[in-house]
Specification:
Mean pLDDT: 90
Distance between the termini: 61 Å
Strand order of the largest sheet: 2-1-5-3-4
Low-confidence stretches: none
Largest sheet: 5 strands, mixed
Number of strands: 18
Length: about 475
């Protein structure tokens, strides 16, 4: 296996195929990248990966603590050691010094790499975008004021042609790297399906934002892993008048570009993980894991999505509703891969909501996907889908039946039917009573939006508003 590390061709020799990129880097003496949480939350280990996406070069910030080093095969990696030119600090590093934006320095390499990514990939155009860029990097001693000020100014730091020159250089270097796919890194869908048939017990890796945790936190070890990141067919997006089809390996970040029909879905995806997680995490992986608190399934269920399951001998389409059987069990045969997600387009009303203890980068306590049609000002064909209410993502048949035929202004009177559909559990994220009560509130919120009304959003109020008694 071969990779580029700070533009230097490097042989990738691994003592363990499940060695993380962070472990490998530090074993090479590149110890500027730090380990903080080992679960992709703190961002101290952030580096940037570059790879070909079609004819273009795509840069991705990643949490190296949960990305296997084997996934670097055929790609370029940039670490904090490669940011400066060896003589002078990079302009963004100098900006951090000038803003007094670092104290202990443990988290600083991760901030530098997130900012380095933002400087050339997509400089923030607002304070909110700066906050989004750095939401996956935690600092416990400096505070975020200076760091955000540096992020706000990224658009004017590098020379105007810096991005183009860097991408051209990386593209040329990758083209000469000569790094063929390894045995369990299939280069196309046919090879992936054959591997799935021949090794049905192998762990599928489709983004690694969950599997990496199973290794670093649960200390699991897999005899075989099939890594799908080189399968181009699974990264394609097809848009027609009828539907949007997303390959299972389309990342959250890339999916956002194609989901403009549903701003509420885009906002939900923006709150999944961090910039680093969204850069590599995939919709297909989020669905196939079958987590009862996965963020995307309830929203996609409400949109009437279906999924394509393929094996070496054929394929089938399945409504997403029917994929989840019980906790830890999905309708996916041992020789099948989830390959595509199809979302129908249309004029149905749609909203998705997520409740969590933190606004950004947190697991849902409750999430809702809600959609319906309006005929003669009455609700028709409502879909109410939940995360966090059962052992799988579930729908609310009793509530859906009660809503059918009502005018939106009348519908709040039947949200109590939710208690007939779900029996939430209590855990560290929320009690059963909270989940039920909050779920009813989320449905009411969707019904207000259906009427063109918006409930008060405390997050958008100014201090003056609050002091004025609003």
């Amino acid at each position: 296996m071969k990779t580029l590390v700070n533009q230097v061709p490097t042989e990738l020799v691994l003592s363990d195929p499940q060695m993380t990129t962070l472990q490998w880097l530090r074993a090479q003496g590149l110890s500027g990248t730090k380990e903080g949480c080992a679960e992709g939350d703190c961002g101290a280990c952030t580096c940037v990966i570059a790879e070909h996406r079609g004819d273009a070069v795509e840069f991705k910030p990643v949490n190296t603590c949960i990305q296997f080093a084997s996934a670097l095969n055929g790609k370029a990696l940039f670490t904090v050691e490669g940011v400066a030119d060896g003589v002078r600090l990079h302009p963004l590093q100098q900006a951090l010094v000038d803003a007094h934006a670092s104290q202990c320095g443990f988290c600083t390499p991760g901030f530098v790499m997130s900012l380095w990514y933002g400087a050339h990939a997509k400089p923030p155009q607002s304070r909110q975008q700066s906050m989004d860029l750095l939401a996956g990097n935690l600092c416990r001693c400096t505070g975020y004021g200076g760091l955000l000020d540096v992020a706000d100014g990224l658009g004017v730091l590098p020379p105007a042609d810096w991005e183009a020159r860097l991408k051209a250089s990386v593209s040329d270097a990758l083209a000469t790297l000569d790094a063929p796919a390894e045995r369990f890194q299939p280069g196309d869908l046919k090879a992936a399906l054959e591997l799935r048939r021949d090794y049905p017990a192998a762990q599928i890796v489709a983004g690694n934002t969950d599997v990496g945790l199973w290794v670093t936190k649960r200390h699991q070890h897999f005899e075989q892993m099939i890594q799908l990141d080189r399968v181009a067919e699974l990264q394609r997006v097809t848009v027609t008048d009828q539907a949007i089809e997303l390959g299972a390996m389309v990342t959250y970040a890339n999916a956002l570009e194609h989901l403009g029909d549903w701003p509420s879905l885009q906002e939900m995806i923006r709150r999944i993980g961090s910039t680093q997680v969204r850069a590599v995490g995939t919709l297909g992986g989020n669905i196939a894991n079958g987590s009862p608190i996965g963020d995307s399934p309830p929203a996609l269920m409400a949109l009437g999505a279906d999924i394509r399951l393929e094996r070496a001998g054929g394929d089938r389409w399945l409504a997403l509703d029917d994929f989840f059987i019980e906790y830890g069990r999905q309708d996916l045969a041992a020789d099948e891969l989830l390959t595509r997600i199809r979302i129908p387009r249309g004029d149905r009303f749609f909203r998705s909501y997520k409740l969590s203890k933190r606004f950004d980068q947190d697991i849902s306590a409750v999430s809702l996907g809600f959609s319906c049609a309006l005929v003669d000002e009455r609700i028709v064909d409502p879909i109410v889908a939940w995360g966090g209410m059962a052992g799988t993502p579930v729908r609310s048949p009793a509530l859906e039946a009660a809503l059918t035929g009502l005018k939106p202004a009348q519908a709040a009177s039947v949200v109590g039917c939710l208690a007939d559909d779900v029996t939430p559990l209590s855990d560290m994220r929320a009690s059963a009573a909270y989940r039920l009560h909050a779920g009813q509130g989320l449905v009411q919120r969707a019904l207000l939006a259906l009427q063109g009304l918006q409930p008060l959003n405390l997050a958008e109020l100014s201090v003056a508003d609050l002091e004025g008694g609003i």
